[in-house]
Structures are given as structure tokens and as C-alpha cells.
Amino acid sequence: MENRRSDASRQHSSLCRSQDQGCCVQQSIRHESVAFPTKSMRVHNPSSSLSGTPMPSSDNVVGSPLIVCTAHIHWDPEFCDVKLVQSMMLAHELWKLVEDVSETHRIKPHQCPTLVCGDLNSLPDSGVFEFLSKSGISRSHPDLKAFKEDAVLEKFSHTHDGANYTHALRLDSAVESGVVAFTNYTLDFKGMIDYIFSTPQSLARLGVLGPFDMEWVRNHKILGFPHPHVPSDHIPIMAQYALIPTNHQRPQPQIQHFGNQHSGAFGAVGR
After folding, report:
1. Are 87 and 147 within 8 A, CB to CB?
2. The CA-based dihedral angle spanning residues 226, 172, 94, 194, taken in that order and rounded to the nearest 10 degrees
3. Model pLDDT for residues 101-158, shown as the tens digit of each residue
4. Nearest partner of 64 among 53, 73, 77, 75, judged by Cα
5. Nearest alpha carbon to residue 266 among 79, 61, 107
6. Mind listing the pLDDT tens digit for each residue in 222-266?
7. How many CA atoms does the CB half-sphere of 26 hold within 13 Å?
8. Catalytic positions
9. Shortest CA distance to 116 belongs to which of 93, 137, 139, 83?
10. Is pLDDT above 50 for 65?
11. Does residue 189 contact residue 268 with C-beta atoms inside 8 Å?
């Protein structure tokens, strides 16, 4: 990332300091780490059951690839721009992995089942959530701050239409808006900052874990977590999916709308 004598300098430094917060895991095949802003790769011995014959064109999903990406986005609520740029970098690298895996299994990239799970340290009205869930974000989005005019972001955009930065993945959030009020519960902050995204063409969502029992919290007069019965300040989210065989998949409509409202990410203080 270009280091300039401007307001972007401070954000650039934070971006570089966060270079270990993010990784992409392709279970049973290989492990790839996406370090911000650089990338390193470790390739383990491929699974014999997944490295041979590609998935047959039938209802059988045995041998189908599954990409699972886990990420931890920068925590500081002051740096919503850094969080958004990190998310753009993550989607960019993940798509390259999807293309690679798809070629190996002789399927189209959009047929490759992909999950993105992570502590994004961003609320549902943030630029990070908008970018991932809507496949893009306006180049004038306030969360980009000084990065709005930074030409280096072009390399992370899938398309170059002049109005939006985009990514090639089609992702749906496992949890509908408003269903889970928080995944981070502390004395000074309560909000949803952890997410599961999936590719709806190749993964059918069967169910999700419901919200935390607030009556139990009130009865025990708990002001925040960790707690003796809840060992983390993060509340787990869980979703169950079924793999959709390639010959039963239906292409999903592309999302065209990209908003530019200011996010509420400044309230997120999770780590």
C-alpha cells in the first residue's frame, strides 16, 4: 500500500500492523494464510480422497470441494477504512483460491461451495458487511476515508466500472438482520460483529442457532462477558448447511445496488 504524507499515513501504518489478522482455510486440502497486507502460503499434503477424480455429474456430493475461510479483521473502531480494505483484500485472495479449486475439480467457480466465517469487528450497517453481502461498495463510501482516491484499491476490485469496488463472490449472511442482537457482549459494547457467509448457489442453509437467552442474562444480573459460565466476550454463532450437487444448482441473481450510507462501525470495540 502506498505510503503517502497525508491522512492515509496513519491508516496505512495500522493496516501494516494488522498483517497477521486473517487466514483462509481449505479443510483437508491445504491451508492458506492471507496476512494483511502481504500473503503467505503453506501447502500441506493433499487429501487422497479429494485430489483425484472430480465430482461426478450426479446427485452424489462425495468428493465435492468445500472452501472454508476464517478471518479476524482489525479491531480498532477508529479504523473502519482499514477494516474495509482488509475485507477487500480477503475477498480478492479468496476468489483466486476459488478459481484454483474449481479448475482442479472441473467445475465453474460459482459452483464451488464456499463459507466465510469470522470476527469482522464491524456492525451490520458497516461498510465491511455491505461489501461482503452485496458483492461491492461505492467508491465514495464514507468508511473508505482517505482510501477513496487511492489507486491501489483497483487491484482488489473484480470489476472497474468507475462507481463501485466489487468482488466476484456471491455471499449470503447465515443470520438474518435483527435475529441475533449481539455476538459481542461487554460492559461498554453490545453488538453483532461475528458472521457466517455462504455461497447460496452451492450451499443450502438448513438452520441457524438462535439468539442468546437474555432472560438468563437478566436473572443473573450479568453486565458483560466473559463470565464463569460464558468464557468469552464473543457469543458463538452456528449454521447448518447442505451441499447442493452441481447439476441441481441454480445461478443466483447478481446484486446491483451498492449504498453509501455511513456505517456505525465506530461503536465496535470487540477484538
Report:
1. no
2. -10
3. 999 999 999 999 999 999 999 999 999 999 999 999 999 999 999 998 899 999 999 9
4. 53
5. 79
6. 999 998 989 999 999 999 999 999 999 998 877 664 444 444 433
7. 32
8. 119
9. 93
10. yes
11. yes
- CB count within 10 Å of CB 183 equals 22
pLDDT for the residue 252: 80
Q: Measured in whole angstroms, how far is the alpha carbon of residue 44 from the centre of its chain?
A: 23
- Encoded amino acid at 212, one letter: F
pTM: 0.77
Contact status, residue 169 vs residue 93, Cβ threshold 8 Å: no
Secondary structure letter of residue 115 according to DSSP? E
First to last CA, the chain: 24
Grid coordinates representing 136 are 461491492
Burial 39-69 (b: 16+ CB within 10 A, else e): beeeeeeeeeebeeebbeeeeebeebbbbeb
pLDDT over 90, % of the chain: 59
Which three cell numbers, joined as nine digits, stand for 139? 467508491
The runs of H, that is alpha helices, within 162-222 are 214-219
